[in-house]
Specification:
With 655 residues, this protein is α/β, with parallel strands linked by helices. It contains 21 helices and 30 strands.
């Protein structure tokens, strides 16, 4: 965050109460209601979650034990049998929701489709049968590399239906990044499309899959299922590649949901951390189903009349929890949009809101800042009166963007729910209830019932009001990540050891800095580790450094985030070249493209500075803090006494 953003957040004093009429009709109607719910949950979290699990979900068999907590490993609803695809589909078919729109989809070129619960159920069953035909069994992992089309959600639900954990890889990741993830998950099948639309161009997804699988790089992957989306010409490898529409034609629309153990793995989702390789975050079935269900229901005050739209991509956790599983488990209508604002259609977002009468709109601060830049004439030219709740996620929201969202999009009528959470947490951890919690621009407000959040120092001691500290969670919750795939040690070290356990109390370390004000409101200030947040996308600096040094010209690289008005943070790289290379604009371009090839366009450095040396401590550690100051054009702050060679800083500044 830039200093001016931090400054404006620190001085923020405005408070907006939920409109009286909204509160009257809300599920949770007042701050007192929230507090009593919170207190009841905190007094006995297991009882609280068990009651909800019983009320809200269908179980083939009830659990024996609510929580088995062997820190840091948690098991929820042990012995219970459940299937999330059943909860998202089958159970609605015996109600009036059978013919309710489950998915409304709008394609970028303007084509569209609506699937009712009955239709979605049928297609999911067909795909589940096809996946089984292709040799996938319960427990086998399936890679999903798709554009934002209904088949992306269908593929996820089909995997869940037969108990094959999916790993969705965002369609913006490169072939190289795709390969790494498919290898780590040992995916048996890859589901993809010929291509997808992105800002009036076609993203060649199948071609990337071909590159990722070339030379038998992913030996486990014996089949590829291809959805026809764009119709462009692609290579189909006989025996390995199959068109979805061919196999769908012969597939039955009936496939009973497999009763899964509550703790069976539902999916792996790769996310960036502080070390080079992204880690596979593991989520399991029962607890994840419950938590995403309840958080969607309460935080969005869901009603059967809602048309709910989350603009995330299914490749991220937001798409998993709040496009697919949470909304469908509630029987809601979830809208999926393939497009994004682009020069040929800058107002497309508001067109979609108007066309479908969207009532709940959930997006990211970086998108809001882009909307502001494009101009308020775009939303003002559309009828946005259907909207009743606005949500935000992905990074701290600057108060100016929050106010614009409230005034221009929400027309001062719609409560804003700023939701703080992570890939690892599975669902919302800190967020207001729209009918109950007065909101403050820039604060995610207070924890969800059952979530014991705190701001502590590195010894686990709570810090005082308005003092900065680390965001920590002090009790397991149903949708917490269970482990890092194939690496329980990394799970323990990354999340549970940074703040050591104290007197039997364990602390989940989120990696975010925060403060809590005198009213108990949380203000998340951003990452405190080597993770940067570019347009709400999470990237590890080490990951980008590894990509840079894999180029023959690069001897050493250091990457930091620098404040960016639109993206929140942008990537700044400092590069030392090998002896036989010299810096040039062409080389700078080549290195940027190299990072795009290794990771994806989202990781393209905004600038690369060539240098002969980097500021290091006497023990050889790069002092990134100083590089961050340099990249942001700020004065060097803090202690520099451990610096090995001070002249390096001067040279970098001049260079
Ligand atoms: O730094 C926090 C930021 O995004 C990180 C989690 O990123 P990811 O796992 O990709 O999940 C993003 C979508 C849930 C967090 O550690 N973050 C997310 N939401 C907020 C936020 N920072 C401040 N306010 C938020 N509402």
């Amino acid at each position: 965050m830039s200093e001016s953003t931090i400054e404006s957040i620190l001085q923020e004093k405005r408070l907006f109460a939920p409109p009286a009429e909204f509160a009257e009709n809300a599920q949770i109607k007042s701050l007192e209601d929230y507090r009593s719910l919170y207190d009841r949950a905190a007094a006995d979290p297991q009882k609280f979650w068990a009651e909800l699990a019983e009320q809200e979900l269908h179980w083939f068999q009830k659990w024996d034990t609510v929580l088995d907590w062997q820190p840091p490993f948690a098991k929820w609803f042990v012995g219970g049998k459940i299937n999330i695809s059943y909860n998202c589909l089958d159970r609605h078919l015996t109600t009036w929701r059978k013919n309710k729109a489950a998915l409304i989809w709008e394609g970028e070129p303007g084509d569209s489709r609506t699937l009712t619960y009955a239709q979605l159920h049928r297609e999911v069953c067909q795909m589940a049968n096809v996946i089984k035909e292709l040799g996938v069994k319960k427990g086998d992992r399936v890679g999903i590399y798709m554009p934002m089309i209904p088949e992306a959600a269908i593929a996820m639900l089909a995997c869940a239906r037969i108990g094959a954990p999916h790993t969705v890889i965002f369609g913006g990741f490169s072939a190289e990044a795709l390969k790494d993830r498919l290898q780590d998950a040992e995916a048996k099948l890859v589901i993809t499309a010929d291509g997808g639309w992105r800002k009036d161009a076609i993203v060649p997804l199948k071609e990337q899959v071909d590159k990722a699988l070339a030379n038998n790089a992913v030996p486990s992957a014996s089949n590829v299922l291809v959805v026809k989306r764009t119709g462009q010409k692609i290579q189909m490898q006989p025996g390995r590649d199959h068109w979805w529409h061919d196999l769908q034609a012969g597939a039955s629309g009936d496939c009973p949901a497999e009763p899964m153990d509550s703790e069976d793995m539902l999916f792996i989702l790769y996310t960036s951390g502080t070390t080079g390789k992204p880690k596979g975050v593991v989520h399991t079935t029962g607890g994840y189903n419950l938590y995403t269900h309840v958080t969607t229901k309460w935080t969005f005050d869901l009603k059967d009349t809602d048309v709910y739209w989350c603009t995330a991509d299914v490749g991220w956790i937001t798409g998993h929890s709040y496009i697919v599983y949470g909304p469908l488990s509630n029987g809601a209508t979830s809208l999926m949009y393939e497009g994004a604002p682009r020069p040929s259609n800058p107002g497309c977002i508001w067109d979609v809101v108007e066309k479908y009468g969207v009532t709940i709109f959930y997006t990211a601060p970086t998108a809001i800042r882009a909307f502001i830049k494009m101009g308020e004439h775009l939303p003002k030219a559309r009828d946005l009166s259907s909207l009743r709740i606005l949500g935000t996620v992905g990074e701290p929201i600057n108060p100016e963007a929050w106010m614009w969202y409230r005034e221009i999009i929400g027309q001062q009528r719609c409560p804003i729910v700023d939701t703080w959470w992570q890939t690892e947490t599975g669902g919302f951890m800190i967020a207001p209830f729209p009918g109950a919690t007065p909101t403050k621009p820039g604060s995610a407000t207070m924890p969800f019932p059952g979530i014991l959040a705190d701001v502590v120092d590195m010894e686990g001691n709570p810090v005082g009001d308005n003092e900065g500290g680390y965001l920590a969670i002090k009790h397991p919750w149903p949708s917490m990540m269970r482990t890092v795939y194939n690496n329980p040690d990394r799970f323990r070290k990354t999340y549970w050891e940074p703040i050591p356990p104290k007197d039997g109390q364990h602390f989940y370390f989120a990696g975010d800095g925060a403060r809590r004000d005198e009213d108990g409101y949380f203000w998340v200030m951003g990452r405190v580790d080597d993770v940067i947040n570019v347009s709400g996308h999470r990237l590890g600096t080490m990951e980008i450094e590894s990509a840079l040094v894999s180029h023959p010209a690069v001897a050493e690289a250091a990457v930091v985030g620098k404040p960016d008005d639109l993206k929140g943070e942008a990537i700044a790289a400092f590069v030392i070249l090998e002896n036989n290379y010299s810096s040039s604009e062409d080389l700078e371009k080549e290195l940027k493209q190299h990072v795009v090839n290794e990771i994806g366009a989202l990781a393209r450095p905004a600038d690369i500075r060539f240098s002969e040396d980097l500021p290091k401590t006497r023990s050889g550690k790069i002092m990134r803090r100083l590089l961050r100051n340099l990249a942001a054009g700020q004065d060097i702050a803090g202690d520099t006494s451990t610096l090995q060679d001070r002249s390096v800083l001067d040279k970098l500044r001049e260079g």
